[in-house]
Structures are given as C-alpha cells and as structure tokens.
Amino acid sequence: MWCLPFSWLYRIRPSVVHDPFKALTQSTFTNDFRACPPNPNQLRWQPFDLPKNPADFVEGLATVCGAGDPKARSGVAVHVYACNQSMKNKCFYNADGDFLIGNGMLVTFQQGMRFSVQVSAPSRGYILEVFNTHFQLPDLGPIGANGLANPRDFLSPVAWFEDVDSVDYLVVSKFQGSLFSSRQDHSPFDVVAWHGNYYPYKYDLAKFMVVNAVSFDHADPSIFTVLTCPSNTPGVAVADFVIFPPQWSVQEHTFRPPWYHRNCMSEFMGLLYGRYQAKEEGFAPGGASLHSMMTPHGPDQEAFEKASCVELRPTKLEGTMAFMFESSFSMAVTQWGQNGCSKLDGSYYRCWQGLRKNFDPNWKPQQTEEPLTSPEIIQS
C-alpha cells in the first residue's frame, strides 16, 4: 500500500522565523537549459577542477546539463560540486525537487530538507536533481525479494538538535531554478524529535548486490539500478541512478564490454574511482560524459580490440566504481558545461575513429569461434 510521504518535526522554534529572502547570484548554477544550441555529439569532460579559492558546497555548485522546468515540476538536472571548506552557520534546501549526491556514498536530500555540508579536505562529486517526484527502489520483478540495493542497507538520521542563538545564520533556498538567501539569528537544526517516513537517507554503494549474466550475452544495465524516479508512463523513468561496481565477468562466447548502441534515453556517466571497462583511457575519475538520445556510443577502439581477442575466462573487475544518470528527458548542456568549465574534450570522437570493419562474407563460423562483427543495439 502506497503511503503519502510526510514527517512531523518537533522544533525549538518554528522555521518561519527568518528575514525575507533575497536573490543570490551564482552564474555557474542554473535550471535554464535553453541558453545553448542543441548538440547531439558524444561529449566528454576531463576531471572538473577542485577550487583554488575558498569555496563551500553551495559556492562550488555548477550545472552541467538538464531538461525541463522546475516550475512545472517536470524534468531533471545534473550538477557537480567542488568545495574545500565547510558551510559555517549556513544551510541549503531545495524547494524544486530531490538532490541525489554521489561520491562513493550516496546521500539523498528530498525536497525541502535543509542540510549543511562539512568537509575535512577538498571534495568533489556529482548531483542528480529530479523535479517530478521522489527516488525509490526499483521493482525487482523475477529477481525476487533480495538483490541490488537492499532496503536494510539504507540509513536514516536519528534525532539531533542544537539550540544556538545570537548568530548570523544564512539559509540558502533553491526556488524555481534560482538561488535565494535569508538570514536568521538561530540555527535551523533545532529538531528535538521527529516521526514519519519523509527523511534524508544515505547508502554505501559497496553494499550493492550485483546481479549479472552468468552464461552468455551482455545484460541490460538496468540490472545495476540503485534508485529510480518513475514517470507516469509504466516502464519509463524520469531518471535512474545506475552503478557499475566491482563484479565478476564470466560470460562465454560474448563481447563482454557494453554494446555499441543508440537508445531513447540520455546517459550521463561519471567515474568515482578506478577505470571504466569500456574506456580505460581518457575517462578519468572526476570527469564525465553525456551520450544523448539516439546518438551512437560504446567501447573505444582499444577496449574493442582487447575484448575481441582476450581469452574468456572468469575475470573479476576490481577497484572501480562508475555510475550513470539515465533519463527519459533529452538533456541540454549549459553554458558552463559547454564553455565555462573549460573541461569539454573536443577530441573525444577520435576514440572510435580507428574502428574498422571485420566482416568477411566468406567466413564460415565454427562452433567454438567468436563472431567477427561488433554487436550493436537500438532501443526505443
């Protein structure tokens, strides 16, 4: 039975006690996705810079791409953050939707939840924002009761409060795609107790239970879905959060890296650490790529040649964690993502230019031989 998300908060003071909000200018952060002309090309970004000057989480926010309109409660946005100092007497909340933040540990702050980010060293990560509804666990279907991200591994906060007065506290709000700030003379983290089912949560990606093909063929990446934000159309997601964690690869008679493919989704990928199987060079931790709807993509030349010739014995992929924000929205790149970050790799397309045909019309397949053509799929 579905239950309406809600929570009761027992505060020392009502949250309405604050000064009026004022516009806060931050040129790198936006929900306006109409500024740049459409670009259907495969896009890749080199690792985004850590800040050279002092910057907290809010000051280090930058928007890479997105689609839709928060005023219409429809769409998604992809941001990155880079910070080197904590938020002191400062908090943030998003009135437009949910923030899913990933940098090894997944943290989700649902719409309206105030939070403050404390860091002990320079930090950067990725954010998936959804406007429509909330993230939830995917339906497991034939997998059954256990698998993928298990509910027992998600952690929620216990009651904690601070009763702090006579301070200059800054509350930053994201509202209708813009940032605003308000001042108050006390800490907003004065919740003495709470109950309900609407709260922030975190999840250790290392706890993900991988399900994979154990005989032949490359399974659809949907089996690596951690969380999904469903749309009103059955089987179509506003956005999925998918990871590619350490795993065993055991398929026989199979091209094991991802297919060459085009599909009806936008795929934004990032690498948290290690190397990604389909592109071991050029796709670095802290960077990203965007493959738009029906734009072909897949393993680079080096990965194709390696996977086509390697002996297919059981292999464990270790020391890696890639992820994908996959959305049914056609995402557009922002001015910062296109030009301002100075990280867009103009030579990305060259990683496929060395691929050559291997088709031989006179070739006669043997039962134990591998196919000499590269698999490609179109999904709609």
UniProtKB/TrEMBL annotation:
**What is annotated as the active site?**
218 (proton acceptor)
Its annotated pathway reads: Amino-acid degradation; L-phenylalanine degradation; acetoacetate and fumarate from L-phenylalanine: step 4/6
Provide the cofactor list for this protein.
Fe cation
Q: What is the protein's species of origin?
A: Geodia barretti
Q: What is this protein called?
A: Homogentisate 1,2-dioxygenase
> Record's GO cellular component, any one?
cytoplasm
NCBIfam families noted in UniProt: hmgA
**Is Oxidoreductase a UniProt keyword of this protein?**
yes
Question: EC number(s) per UniProt?
Answer: 1.13.11.5
Residues binding Fe cation, per UniProt: 261, 267, 297
Gene3D superfamilies named among the record's database cross-references: Jelly Rolls
Which UniProt key words apply to this protein? Dioxygenase, Iron, Metal-binding, Oxidoreductase, Phenylalanine catabolism, Tyrosine catabolism
Looking at the record, the residues that make up the Homogentisate 1,2-dioxygenase N-terminal domain are: 7-101, 107-205
InterPro entries per record: HgmA_C, HgmA_N, Homogentis_dOase, RmlC-like_jellyroll, RmlC_Cupin_sf
Entry binding sites for homogentisate: 276, 297
Q: Look up the record and give one Gene Ontology term from the biological process aspect.
A: L-phenylalanine catabolic process
Q: What class of enzyme is it?
A: oxidoreductase
* Protein family (similarity comment): Belongs to the homogentisate dioxygenase family.
Q: Which residues form the Homogentisate 1,2-dioxygenase C-terminal domain?
A: 207-359
Name any one GO molecular function: metal ion binding
